[in-house]
Design brief:
The protein is mainly alpha-helical. The protein is 62% helix and 8% strand. Helix 3 packs antiparallel against helix 6 (130-155).
Amino acid sequence: MTVTLHELSVLNYLQTLGAVGAFLEKAQKHFLEHNVALDEIVDTRLYPDMLPFRFQIQSVVHHSVGAIEGIRQGVFRPPSDLANHRYEELQKLVADASETLQKVTPETVNARAGADLVFEIRGNKVPFTTEGFVLSFSLPNFYFHATTAYDILRSKGAPLGKRDYLGRMRLKS
């Protein structure tokens, strides 16, 4: 069985972005019903030296849409705009990311298979192939931040479970 770069990246991003969007909505409903301020949620950290919920969602978006843009350009960089988004704005970022990725064709991504990609950070250039970037950097970061966002919501009492995190699986038809 051959797995394409598009399947490794875009389809995985879309599955988890769908889950993130759904668990953000479910948590929002819970917090509103229980008079928990959404501004409190976006600033929540699991531990003092960890970045807040807001950053986790911004990173989910960056390590999906930003990763595909990096694959297209051959260069990936840390995000430049980390605004103090409110909860609803974070939901929109996730929805927009899903919408953007749904328009990415397999041909566009697969054409970059085996190509070079450089991760530029603070003057350093880290060389990857596109597959190496997706499998060893982008997806691990993407899942880490999605999981951390989920964990923050759970820590604040949102009634989420594993099924909320998994999203819509790609079942055999």
